[in-house]
Amino acid sequence: MTGNSGAAGRPELLADHLDAVERRLQAACQAANRSRTELTLVAVSKTWPAADVAALARLGVGNFGENRDQEAAPKARALSELNLVWHFVGRLQANKCRSVATYADVVQSLDRARVVASLSAGAVRAGRDLDVLIQVSLDGDTRRGGVEPNGVPALAETISAAACLRLRGVMAVAPMGVEPARAFDTLAQVASSLQVQAPAASWISAGMSGDLEAAVAAGATHVRVGTALFGGRTPLGG
Ligand SMILES: *Cc1c(COP(=O)(O)O)cnc(C)c1O
User: Fold this and answer.
1) What 8-state DSSP symbol labels residue 72?
2) How far away, in angstroms, is 125 Cα from ligand 1 center?
């Protein structure tokens, strides 16, 4: 954790950061002629302790994102009485699906059929319905996760046929070296094609600390914000 040796403690710092992020979201919504109520802030709490999540929850944040099962599972369990909405946003391995399905409410990073089957089996086993998003790769480099846009219809079909999974939309990370506005416009096109096929799939998860304004302008319904809320992650913390 970063040393914050000022007079204010960690909860006060988080409150300041949340105010700043809210001001950015309000301004972005205003500029795009959208209502702040159309937008869900997902606080990406990876590498930060459960106490930070609890502090933001006391300030009214209800949605949190994590990218590693080993870290997310105990955090979600420790805070289960807060009734938070947990989003899994990381690379999903088949052998982690059983665990993820026990605490995640939303899985934003589905990108291949093999994992759909594992996640569905996990959800059935846990007796829970999961909202899922298809992660889309916007630069053809699928090593960092995501299916290429032309693979979305088939994957959507597979998800729609899977028990206990509800297809809610798409997610993407703006690729390095591509203007976020262009990347998010492409994602918006993928999203509207998907919605023809799957009308309930209306969510667009796009935008992080550095590019949330561009995402809001392009129609994002969910922004995933880590650094701007919690501070910089250590190199080892990912
Ligand atoms: C870490 C992470 C974020 C948050 O990124 P920041 O730049 O810290 O806001 C958003 N989405 C995904 C998939 C992440 O892994």
Assistant:
1) H
2) 29
State how far the Cα of 136 lies from the Cα of 191, in Å rounded to an integer: 10
Shortest-distance atom of ligand 1 to CA 209: 9
Tens-digit pLDDT profile for residues 101-151 = 999 999 999 999 999 999 999 999 999 999 999 999 998 888 889 999 999
Pairing of strands 85-88, 63-66: parallel
What is the C-alpha separation between 120 and 128, in angstroms, rounded?
A: 10
- 3-state DSSP assignment of residue 41: strand
The helix/strand/coil state of 222 is strand
Q: 149-167: per-residue pLDDT in tens?
A: 999 999 999 999 999 999 9
Q: Which residue's structure tokens are 């459960």?
A: 50
Q: Per-residue DSSP letters for 157-219?
A: HHHHTSTTEEEEEEE--PPTTS-HHHHHHHHHHHHHHHHHH-TT--EEE---TTTHHHHHHTT
Residue 17 and residue 92: Cα distance in Å, rounded? 29
**Which secondary-structure segment (H or E) carries 79?**
none
Q: Is the dihedral of CA 61, 63, 68, 73 positive or negative?
A: positive
What's the rounded Cα separation, in Å, for the pair 169 and 111?
12
Whether 220 lines ligand 1, by a CB cut-off of 6 Å, is no
